[in-house]
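Bench notes, afternoon.
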Amino acid sequence: MTVHVIATGGTIASHFDGVEWTNIAGAQLVSEAGPHGCDVTVDDVATGPSSNLTVHDMVRIVERIQRALADGADGVVITHGTDTMELTAFVAALLLGVDGARPPVVFTGSMRVHSHAQPDGPQNIRDAIATASDRSAVGREVMVCLEGVLHAADVVTKVNANSVDAFTSAPFGPIGSVVDGHPGFRDPAIERPKATALADDVPLLTSYPGIGGAEFARLAEGRRGIVLEAFGDLNVPQQLWGPIHAAGAAGTLVVLASRPFTGTRVEDGLTMLGAVGAGGLSAQKARLAVMAALGTCADRAAATLFLHQFSLSYDAHDRSTAP
């Protein structure tokens, strides 16, 4: 059993020696976190904060994952900065897909630097390698593993920049956990298609009180897709209705996402507006999913169908009907 670790820098590799900051190589991180119950190979591909990464950088990391899997790795772990870990993990989910045979792919990192008196990185690495080497993790979603919790890449979000308990899958629960070096999972994985490429030039605009329609029109003009972060259940200010309708009529795939969770994909108001909902994806992930849909599909209708295969469904258990 061989797990391949791809080290990409981030807080987990950041070390202050009292004089200057340096980046610790992946082999050292893995060695310090050991021993491990499998063979481990290591590949350093980038250093520095993950906030510097572009989508092209994220795709290159996924290409390294694909190469490791093609070379026979039984699992892959990616050490990554936490600022954009959930986004690179979702790019991996889009490009790798989910099927019953794919070896585990697990992202991990840390909230404390390597030189911290009580670093959280070593335990996170141990848990991630244990998960990637476990047969029960085969055929599952791309995962994010921190603090002994396993999150699916499509729902995980960093919600606290000042705590080791920084990530959540809310309103969903985590897909599993690691206890004493052994991963356990709640539910079976859902198979999903894989994207073939990510299209460039899909802007993301956030609605705010008083936003002008001209701002949306300028960003949408001539583009195949655009994501607008809306309010609530995909509500947008009235001054945006006309520009959104015009963009949709011109052939642009207009996708509305929201900061709070809403699983809305298609409904009469959206259809009249000329837009579709992101199906529960955050605005950041909706943008990546639209890039994948447009990079994979030849027309807007097919791209919409592809996008909605990544929709999230959540039963809110309305309290008004509770006994």
